[in-house]
Amino acid sequence: MRITVIGAAGMVGSRVVREAASREHGVIAVFRRGRPALLPPGVTAVEGDANDPRHMSELLEDADAAVAATRPAPGHEDTAVTTTTALLDAAATARVRILVVGGAAPLRVPGRPDRLVVDSPEYVPREWRTLAAASAAQLDACRAHPANWVYLSPPAVLEPGHRTGTYRRGTTTLITSADGTSRISAEDLAVAVLDELENPREHQHFTVGH
Fold first, then answer.
1. Which residue in 4, 32, 129, 133 has its CB near the most CB atoms, within 10 A?
2. Which of 103, 191, 117 is nearest to 154 (CA)?
3. 201 near 171, Cβ under 8 Å?
4. pTM to 2 decimals?
């Protein structure tokens, strides 16, 4: 499979690149600027602006799937919808399925189907609220777009860690452990991304967790 990863320099994107390469997929890693010093063998690095749908559609022309792993810079959370829409436009033009790695905000709280994570201080501290609201708007932008998309909501805590190769998968409700925590390593999130690309399920919005 030929996979284009946009946002390949980020915490999630870099791990998706490594996971895809380890499974011997052809990978184009799209970076905003410059080329990283180290990339897995067989990965092609290119520069690209996620907000330029014409250029992005050219990069997606020969891809079998795309992964949007972009993340707005602090203070620029309002760009999440604009960037995602541009990438959806590019994917639609290239007729490529795109997996958008978003946020936990639009998930429902376990046991409280009437309440979203974005409105729950126990999962979204005040300093994360602006970014959380942006990810909820990001999913709304996907739902309004005709592109062939799937949206992955990580759990409440996503951070670098170890690759176990295992995770639990759900749909629109946050996955929590017995102690109420909700987390996954970025490495195992990348495993879930590649599993979805290789064997697509029927749900357009799904989540994973340990």
1. 4
2. 103
3. no
4. 0.96
